Amino acid sequence: MSAGTLLELSHVSVTFDGFRAINDLSLSLAPGEMRAIIGPNGAGKTTMMDIITGKTRPDTGVVKFREHDLTKLDEPAIARMGIGRKFQKPTVFEELTVRDNLLLSLKGLRSPFALLFAKETAEEKARIDGLLHTIRLGREAPRQAGGLSHGQKQWLEIGMLLGQEPDLLLVDEPVAGMTDAETMETADLLREINQTRSVVVVEHDMEFVRALDVKVTVLHEGSVLAEGELDQVSNDPRVIEVYLGR
Amino acid sequence: MSPRFSRRDFTKFSLAASAAMLAGVKGAAAAAPKGEPIRIGVLHSLSGTMAISETTLKDVILMLVELQNRKGGVLGRPLEAVVVDPASNWPLFAEKARQLLAVDKVASVFGCWTSVSRKSVLPVFEELNGILFYPVQYEGQECSRNVFYTGAAPNQQAIPAVDYLLSADGGGAKRFALIGTDYVYPRTTNQILQNYLKSKGIADADIMVNYTPFGQSDWQTIVSQLKAFGSAGKKTAVVSTINGDANVPFYKELGAQGISATDIPVMAFSVGEEELAGMDTKPLVGQLAAWNYFESIDSPANKSFIKEWHDYTKNPKRTTNDPMEASYIGFNLWVQAVEKVGSTDHDKVIDAMVGLKQPNLTGGTAQVLPNHHITKPVYIGEIQDDGQFNVVWQTPKEVPGMAWSPYVPETKNLIGDWTKSVSCGNYDTVKKACLGAKHG
Amino acid sequence: MNASLSFRGASVTAVIVVLLTGVLAVGSLLPASSPVQVSPFIMTLAGKYLAYAMLALAVDLVWGFAGILTLGHAAFFALGGYAMGMYLVREIGARGVYGNADLPDFMVFLSWKSLPWYWWGSDHFPVALLLMLVVPAGLAGLFGWLAFRSRVSGVYLSIITQALTYALMLAFFQNGFGFGGNNGLTDFKDILGFDLHSPYTRAGMLFISGLILAGALLAARYVVGGRFGSLLIAVRDAESRTRFLGYRPEQVKLLVWVFSAVIAAIGGALYVIQVGIINPGEFAPANSIEAVIWVAVGGRGTLSGAVIGAILVNLGKTLFTAWLPEMWLYGLGALFMATTLFLPQGLMGLMRHLPEKRPSEVTPEVTNPEGGEA
Amino acid sequence: MADVAMSGPAALSGRKMRNGVRGIFAAVLLSLLFIQPHHARADEDAFAGLATTQFNTIASSVDQIAQQGGPRALPVLRALADRKLFAAREGDGLFIRTDSGWADARSGASASPDEETLRPVRVNNRVRLAVAAAEAELELVSGTPAERQASANVFYQRHDPAMLPAIDKALSKTDDAALKDTLLNARAAALLSPGAPASDAQAQQQAVAKLKAAGGLDARGVLAQASTSEALDPATRKAAEAAVSSIDFKLKLWGFGQDAFYGLSLGSVLLLAAMGLAITFGVMGVINMAHGELMMIGAYTTWLTQKAVLSVVPALGSFSLILAIPAAFLVCGALGIVIERGLIRFLYGRPLETLLATWGLSLILQQVIRSLFGPTNVAVVTPPWLSGSFHLGGIEVTIDRLAIMIFAGVVMAGLMLVLRRTPLGLEMRAVTQNRRMAALMGIRTARVDALTFGLGSGIAGLAGVAVSQIDNVSPNLGQSYIIDSFLVVVFGGVGNLWGTLAAAATLGVGGKALEPLVGAVSGKILLLVLVILYIQRHPRGMFPLRGRGVES
């Protein structure tokens, strides 16, 4: 493992009921890098995310984040270590207000017992205001999150990720169901985030990936099929076969 | 379907009855009761697990009330039954008892079946100085001034039953399996029986005691254990204090495993006609039960009681049983006491009760004893294939009920006596003192 | 305003509870001749309802706010009741039937020679209080720690809570267990030297119950109202999401679970003092299910609704078992069906909608959101 | 499993055994107390004693009748056993009630006594025992081969030394190996019993060896008694003691098999009770608290069917149970469809609220049955072909339990077939897996929902039929099964029928294995705790469904 690596998966495999979802996958990410992961359905993209975030334990292989072995840790521990994850379907706390959603996400207090007696500090308020500005939801702050539009929910979730102040963001299909304009805005947002944090984006939308303009990894049947610039990858005959063949 | 009988119906009924009598209907022997009705409470579960046994007792009291009103009521006033449903819930029993006594101001209460329901209402009756007639055989070891125990005490059921099993006619058993549901009645009864059997020379090794939870429905293991217990080369008998619900699967399993009454007789204290009505009795012929009443006993009073019952329930197949007779005796004793003192005042009625006599349905007389228990004849019946019992043995005369068992070391010196001279439910005859805090 | 904030009325309810119990307590001390005298019957009923309201409040905390459908909460209620019952039984002392100062009647009865070790100290009120809090909290803590840690959820959790209370019921039914078997503990005489049957004790107990219920309401409101409450609702609606934020939902659930068990246990203790009997029937799974129904009738997730539901359903039960002894089950059954069909948010939902005439809001259903990400 | 093979000849001989099982132990005592003081003289009227009211006189009269023999002995004894023998209240007239009228007991000629003056001859267990023994004595000589075998069994169980001459006589007259073996056992047992004629140590020890080889509880009883009998040689007593422990050891080994049978039979009851719930709850996600009440209604349907058949075609009475199976399925299935259409369908997507609504429904159903048929138990008769037991080696197999095991297997197989092989099953799976997609493909989801719930309810009805054979049939029936049913489904893994099967078997066998060790109550508590702990380790039960969208 080279010194300049933030996240490294080496020879990871996982099997569900005889089905190899991830097959000897190796991947590494440099600090500050943004990476797009593409691949057909069933290529193992979501499972890979699950493994990194501790939801699924691999059968074999090592997952390292800085010097920590993630396969030994569970989701909250990994999250506290600085890995944030955004789900494919926007998952926000619908009954809470936008503001409360962000408040819960803020890095800091995690013990339920401490939370019992915690009061919102001025510093926290400032951070929330900042986040609201970043995700362009300032006017929606007192609303229940359940009443937001689909795109707004996506942003709120990204805002919650930012509130966690992670070093690495895993983003699963952030633009599914968005309008073209929203898609482009999201790409801008991610690039902005990438200035301070590493990002892994899983996405189908090629226009969006193109707009991100980052290194691309193609997954197929649980392992890496190709890696490189989008143009270079999209000309790879194996990739073309996987996407268009058969 | 049993006829519904709410308070309002009842008032309507008594009005109608009065009207009919005023109009001179033939056969109206007594004057129609007039004036403010005397209320009595009926505290039996009509839903939940105990409804199966208790609903019948509610019907009996309603019938007796109707009959009494036809005879002219009590003190010339009509009786009115206040029926409540404690729903087989023991704290609810206490609540309903309080309601009957404090809100409905009933003159007396007829109710309870399980020991726990009685224990639950007891403090209420003592606090509010009510009168409870308790019509079910029970474990004894209790003697409250406010309760009249018209069912059997252990010495009026369990002891004679075991005597029968030990006798030649009963098979001369030398080995006893005491099986019961795990609650206070079987625990106490079995404790008394164990001591009694030992006094009769039965060794510890020849007594097996087994307890099962309420509603036990799978008896395979226990019945096979009984079989094994019975294979020691000695005549073996079973004394069953299994609670109502669990009896059906128990007897079904006995039948299925081929144990008949001639192999290992089972003497039951909680299986009566009502329970048999829910069973196919062919495999049970010859199994035994000890009671103070059987429907099959041929006596004029019993015949007419059964007829009234069939007329009242409009069901010629509805069975009668022991707790029904106990309710009948309790009700009539109360009526006598009220007529005697000319008042429903609780203290006066309680004091007037001791010594009163009421003919049993099956012959003989029930007399109220100073300990608020009564004298009862004891019968042993064998189950027949028609769902009735055939009486094979009976005590020569009535047995007086003992509140405290002489076979339990802690209570052998205790007596209950609520007459003026002693006025104590738990009087220690050795220490010459009333124990605890229960003074009349 | 919105469904999740509907517990704001809890403080109002708390005040009403204190006022009402105060009025009842004073009313009960009036001479019997007074037309507004409150009879002891009403007093014992009111005491019972308040105790049940505590249980309902406890259920609402875990079901309404943490999404844990408990079918075994009566276990904690009954354990609290037994702890208090043990003390009350020891208070009887030599005034029992057998006049035995050392052993409770039921032990003499079964020929026990000495007190079992777990009865030691039960004659001291502070010990009883400690037992009342520690035993249910300990059991809840152990059970919750095991269950939440291994992410048992949904119906699986519901069924094992039911299994828990069922197992306890069977255990307490055994006479050999040392708690009076089926008969339970009863025939109490006094508490801390006050005669339990005296009108003053009754009035005092009712008022104390009212204060405790009000206190529990406020405490519950504090718990669900703050940041912990937000987290609780977050865990209820999207448990896995909270995990990726770095929270440990099992800790959140455990905390509220134990808190709720303690409230239930205090309810049980108040129940025993005022109803006068505790027996294993209180552990019956049906009792736990009924407690859930009270909450549903009153309105889940509203705190006040739990209290109102418990009182109304039990009041109905009291009245109908007397008025329509053979028909009341039809009424009760129909009430439960009608509530779920027509009042999905219970009476509190109805109250919320009537004045505002708004189309009914859809309550987000507490289905487990993990489903989508298998 | 050898289930099918057992029901043939083994079952037959099992029933024969049962006929003779009367009076194993009672007989021991009878022989003790019943030392007959006089030998019957041929001219004495042995029947006269029957007309008395004393049980001991009646019983000794029965013995006399048996010893005298004669053509009237058997008919009179049988009439006595069937309670068809009547005595005149005055005098010693004895009459038998026949189908057409009355017959004189002593002559068999038809008679017309005044019925008002008659009373039934009293019978109790003591008399019954005497009748059984007397019948055996008479039939051993004159009966059919089957009757003789049964009589020999009675002799064996009765092991009365007074019977030794009769046994020897019968032994000399038979070549039937099985009969001979039973008689030899009977002879050995009689030799070791109190009151036996003095015999040498060798003969005694041969008898002990014979009984040791025979094994079983009957032999154990005799040997246990012999081991303490002062009348026997000390060496014999020792041998008997050793034989008892050898038999006990064998019984203990067989006991494991017996416990397994009990466990499987309990498991099959649990399986039947849980299977319907596995559909309504496991597949549809409805927390159906009224499931137990549907079982209860199935049991009442059985009762009603039985009553109807008995009143219309009494001859078919014993087969009414067969008829009750489709009846209960249809009644409960139809009721299930009504419940689904009237209640459940408004609650889809709110699974926890189905719990509250169906709980209310269960209260109402209980009360409806209570109002219609009363609060007490009703008697469902077990037909003769389902009663009794037979031995499979040292395992006693009760026929009703065996039938329930087979029935549970058949229902399970049928359910599997419906789910896997029928269009309804396919549609059911489609709807539960993806309702919207199924609807788009033209499946009428409302109809499928109703039918699925109906199917689950119908199976609950079938469980009711089975349960009516072994348990109370009362309005409370459902309450006693509902908790166990849910436990089974959840323990097995919601939505997985194989899991339900495995859980039912585990809980059944586990419960029955624990029961002899710690008692019924503690066993059940222990089992509940184990299930709780198991679910902590495996939060989705024994056979968790994998894949998406299975969680409710």
* Spatial sequence of strands, sheet with the most strands of chain C: 1-4
| Largest interface in this structure | B-D, 72 and 80 residues
The dominant shape of chain B is globular
Radius of gyration of chain C, in Å, reads 21 Å
Specify the helix fraction band of chain C: 55-70%
Order of helices and strands of chain C: HHHHHHEEEHHHHEHHHH
Global geometry of chain C: globular
- Average per-residue pLDDT of chain C, rounded, comes to 87
Q: How many separate domains make up the residues of chain B?
A: 2
Organism (chain C): Acetobacter aceti NBRC 14818
Membrane topology (chain C): Multi-pass membrane protein
Keywords (chain C): Cell membrane, Membrane, Transmembrane, Transmembrane helix
Pfam families (chain C): BPD_transp_2
Please describe what this structure looks like.
The complex is a heterotetramer of chains A (246), B (440), C (374) and D (552). Chain A is built from ten helices and ten strands. Chain A has helices spanning 45-53, 75-81, 98-105, 112-116, 122-134, 150-163, 180-194, 206-212, 230-234, 237-244; strands at residues 7-16, 19-29, 34-38, 60-65, 68-69, 83-86, 168-172, 198-202, 215-220, 223-228. In chain A, the strands form two sheets. Chain A has a six-stranded mixed sheet with strand order 6-7-8-3-9-10, with helices on both faces. Chain A has a four-stranded antiparallel sheet with strand order 2-1-4-5, covered by helices on one side. The longest helix of chain A is centred in the C-terminal third of the chain and has 15 residues, at 180-194. Chain B is α/β, with parallel strands linked by helices. Chain B has two domains: 3-152 and 299-377, Response regulator (Rossmann fold, 3-Layer(aba) Sandwich), CATH 3.40.50; 156-297 and 380-400, 3-Layer(aba) Sandwich (Rossmann fold), CATH 3.40.50.2300. Chain B is built from twelve helices and 19 strands. Chain B has helices at residues 7-22, 51-70, 90-103, 115-128, 158-166, 184-199, 220-229, 244-256, 273-276, 300-313, 322-341, 346-353; strands at 38-43, 79-84, 108-111, 132-134, 147-149, 175-181, 207-212, 236-241, 266-268, 288-291, 357-359, 365-367, 375-376, 379-383, 389-394, 399-400, 414-417, 424-428, 433-434. In chain B, strand 8, helix 8 (244-256) and strand 9 (266-268) form a beta-alpha-beta unit. Chain B starts with 6 loop residues before the first helix and ends in a 6-residue tail after the last strand. Chain C has a two-stranded antiparallel sheet. In chain C, strands 2-3 form a two-stranded antiparallel sheet. The longest helix of chain C has 27 residues, at 199-225. In chain D, a hairpin with a 5-residue loop joins strand 3 (102-104) and strand 4 (110-111). In chain D, helix 3 (24-33) crosses helix 7 (145-158) and helix 13 packs across helix 19 (445-467). At the B-D interface, helix 2, strand 7, helix 7 and helix 8 of B face helix 3, helix 6, helix 11, helix 12 and helix 15 of D. Chain C: InterPro entries: ABC_transp_permease, ABC_transptr_urea_perm_UrtC, LivM-like. Chain C: Its main location: membrane. Chain C: It is a multi-pass membrane protein. Chain C: This is Urea ABC transporter permease subunit UrtC. Chain C: It is found in: Cell membrane.
